[in-house]
Specification:
Cytidine Deaminase, domain 2, about 50% helix, alpha+beta, 14 helices, about 325 residues, elongated
């Protein structure tokens, strides 16, 4: 049995016992294996900051940005340092994913300087290229060779546990973007026809239709997709759907509204796409939320719920704060 198979078997047994196992990161390789599950895809040319929380320093909020060029390194370091300070992240792990050593170093060194000046503890400061990692903190050649240390993310116990816990990673951002792009022409045609019929009659009860969709296993029918798309158009009805979301059920709402976003006619997209984006943000996937927001913005750049979502993303608002102001944001038009 391979090392990867043994790890998966062990993690499956522990999950089967009824509790999610706590797997500690034993070093940089484990951290690198977990990051794709935290951001939702395998990052390249990226700078990633992970906040660690609690006395056991478990993984907390994760920030990912495209890695700036050398000319923009200072600006990017300033921005990340301000976000870390605003949220009080301490300690943190910082990783630059890049095959270009000098480009990564330009951002890493400036960010390190700002964090140390602010008194933020940096537990790991790394560069990784997908196959090897380098530490900016360790100078011991016996453990951190100048040629880099090989790592296999798929063989990590943390990665196996993430998979079995239902966490997913995509190969790249384009795969995530496809979650909200138009689906098959035949399905969209069926949904468009059903929408036209519904628009000529009484509007569906969005709460009833949404509850039915959430209880459906498997793909929604064209009739369900149309009822959700049409039912969400009045602002009051859209806000009913919005208010039904919580951090606990956000993933289920995301699955429903992503299906509707892929199938709905563009004229009905802003409401359903914004609901999909908000569900993605609330579930902790800022990357997915940004892709949903981009899709809506292409159709209607002025749609206020989507503008609010974009603002939340730009301000790095923590979705855990949503419960504190539920009912307030839903007054958006």
């Amino acid at each position: 049995m391979s090392k990867k198979s043994r790890i998966i078997k062990q993690a499956r047994a522990e999950l089967g016992a009824g509790s999610l196992p706590v797997v500690r990161a034993k070093g940089p390789a484990d951290v690198l294996a977990m990051i794709p599950y935290l951001v939702g895809f395998v990052p390249t040319n990226s700078i990633v900051v992970i906040a660690l929380e609690g006395p056991r320093k478990h993984f907390g909020p994760c920030i990912r940005m495209d890695l700036a060029g050398r000319d923009g390194a200072g600006t990017q370091a300033d921005y990340l340092a301000s976000v870390i300070a605003h949220h009080g992240f301490d300690p943190v792990i910082v990783v630059a994913f890049s095959q270009h050593r000098d480009r990564a170093r330009a951002v890493i060194e400036q960010l390190e300087s700002r964090l140390l000046e602010a008194g933020v503890e940096i537990l790991e400061l790394l560069r990784a290229d997908g196959e090897r990692w380098w530490s900016y903190q360790c100078t011991d050649g016996s453990c951190c060779d100048a040629s880099g240390t090989p790592y296999d993310a798929d063989s990590s116990a943390l990665a196996a546990t993430a998979v079995l816990a239902g966490m997913a990673k995509a190969a790249g951002r384009d795969d995530l973007r496809a979650c909200f792009e138009p689906g098959s022409a035949s399905l969209r045609a069926q949904v468009a026809d059903s929408c036209s019929v519904l628009e000529a009659s009484d509007l569906p009860d969005i709460g009833q239709v949404l509850n039915g969709a959430l209880a459906t296993s498997g793909p929604l029918s064209p009739e369900q997709l149309a009822a959700l798309a049409v039912g969400a158009q009045p602002i009051a009805s859209r806000d009913v759907a919005w208010s039904m979301m919580s951090r606990r059920n956000a993933a289920s709402h995301l699955d429903v509204w992503a299906q509707v976003t892929r199938a709905a006619p563009d004229r009905l997209l802003p409401a359903v796409g914004s609901l999909a984006g908000f569900a993605a943000w609330l579930s902790g996937s800022g990357v997915l939320a940004s892709h949903a927001a981009e899709r809506v913005e292409r159709v209607d750049p002025t749609y206020s719920m989507n503008r609010l979502l974009i603002r939340c993303l730009e301000m790095t608002v923590d979705p855990r704060d949503w419960e504190d102001f539920r009912g307030g944001p839903c007054t958006s038009g």
